[in-house]
Amino acid sequence: MADETNLEGEVAVVADAAGGEPQREGRGRGRGRGGNDRGGNNDRGGNNRGGRRDDRRGGRGADDDGGEELIEKLVHINRVSKTVKGGKRFGFAALVVVGDGKGRAGFGKGKAREVPEAITKATAAAKRAMVRVPLKEGRTLHHDGKGRFGAGKVNVRTAPAGTGIIAGGPMRAVFESLGVADVVTKSVGTSNPYNMIRATFDALVSQTSPKSVAQRRGKKVADLLGRGGATSVEAEAAADAITE
Question: Which CATH class is domain 133-241?
Answer without folding.
Answer: alpha beta
